[in-house]
Amino acid sequence: MTPDDVIPWLLDTDPALRWQVQRDLLDAPEETWRATRDRISQEGFGAALLAHQDPVTGMWAGGAFFPAGFFEDPANQDLPGQPWTATTWSLTTLREWGMDAAPLRARGTATRLAEHARWEYDTSLPYWGGEVDVCINAMTLANGLWLGAEVEPLVSWFVSHQMEEGGWNCEAENGSRRASFHSTLNALRALLLHEQATGGTGATRAARAAGEEYLLERNLTRRRTTGELVGPWVDHFLYPPRHIYSALRALEHFRLAGRRDPRMLEAAELVQAAQQRDGTWLQQHALPGEVWFEVDVPIGEPSPWLTLQGLRVLRWWNEA
Q1: Other Cβ atoms within 10 Å of 252 Cβ, number
Q2: 238-283, pLDDT tens digit by residue?
Q3: Which residues share a beta bridge with 222?
Q4: CA–CA separation, 302 vs 282, rounded Å?
Q5: Counting CB atoms within 10 angstroms of each CB, which of 106, 129, 220, 272 has the fewest?
């Protein structure tokens, strides 16, 4: 493959990816990319994932964050990774593919989940109320906004659980008082969606600004204390990323937020450095765990999803 082959290669993919190429890389007319996006629920990855939804409970794999019965099987405690098949992960995947929520709303998904889904952490907690993990609550807030569920009470949770330095940490329930790049980015993505959907509040807008500043003070890449890269995952790009932070995902957030800052330069350089001579980005990592089906390539192969994201981010960054 040569750089000239990349766009045709990306267009020869699933509708969940193809519509984004049309909109974000080719500037296609809205009626063109919308027609492609409408096919997500009818064919390919989207239709296949929708087929696994329980028509009665609205759930996937019978569980909120883990499949039903996961913790009752002792063999699961030694698995190298968690399953990615339960309700929260499946909804998040469909939403991030850009699927119109109409088919799920027609199924009464939000209402069915309110009736049947409970969190494994504490089965007394209603699904749309979230639980104690910031990454889980971020996905819940984003998915609820998408499906039209009542999630406004959850929004204040992010304000009250923001740490002094501006970020969040999924380990706060276990006593951590230091913010996490992973958790902070996931919270920011949800707060941005809430702000775009509702306008937000003064408190949520301030929380998002402080969280973004937490990442920017660290150049999206480095520890503030030592100046070292915060972790190997910063420049090891993967799809699906699940909850994992990377320079690429951070830049995608700021692109969507419409905010450029000189302190993002190193992150942009890491993304640029990962581009191959043929114009693609390679799958560099994979999270172990059960999936419904594979949606991207093995480690070491050119990834259509990462190539779309890399080209999109660099196009946005270089516009400045």
Answers
A1: 20
A2: 999 999 999 999 999 999 999 999 999 999 999 999 999 999 999 9
A3: 229
A4: 4
A5: 106
Q: How far apart are CA 60 and CA 64, in angstroms?
A: 8
The letter for the amino acid at 131 is E
Answer yes or no: are the C-beta atoms of 211 and 184 closer than 8 Å. yes
Task: Give the residue carrying structure tokens 């929708």.
Answer: 50
Helix (H, G, I), strand (E, B) or coil at 229: strand
Spatial distance between the Cα atoms of 201 and 149, rounded to a whole number of angstroms: 19
Distance CA 44, CA 51 (A): 11
**253 CB contacts (<8 Å, ≥6 apart)?**
185, 188, 189, 192
Euclidean distance between CA atoms 2 and 270, whole angstroms: 21
Q: How confident is the model at residue 23 (pLDDT cuts 50, 70, 90)?
A: very high
* Residue 64: C-alpha distances to residues 136, 173, 198, 233 (Å): 10, 19, 26, 27
**189-231 confidence digits (pLDDT tens):** 999 999 999 999 999 999 999 999 999 999 999 999 999 999 9
pLDDT tens for 50-90 read 999 999 999 999 999 999 999 999 989 888 999 999 999 99
Confidence label for 174 from pLDDT (cuts 50, 70 and 90): confident
The amino acid at residue 146 is: W
Cα atoms in the Cβ-side hemisphere of radius 13 Å centred on 204: 23
Which residue, among 251, 236, 242, has the nearest Cα to 300 in the 3D structure?
A: 236
Share of the chain above pLDDT 70, in %: 100
Longest dimension (CA), the chain: 55
Report H helices in the chain: 6-11, 15-24, 30-37, 44-50, 87-96, 102-106, 109-116, 134-147, 152-160, 181-198, 202-216, 247-257, 265-273, 304-318
Site of tokens 């984003």: 142
- Angle CA 121–127–129, to nearest 5: 95
pTM: 0.97
Residue 148 contacts residue 101 (beta carbons within 8 Å) = yes
**300 half-sphere exposure, CB direction, 13 A CA radius:** 0
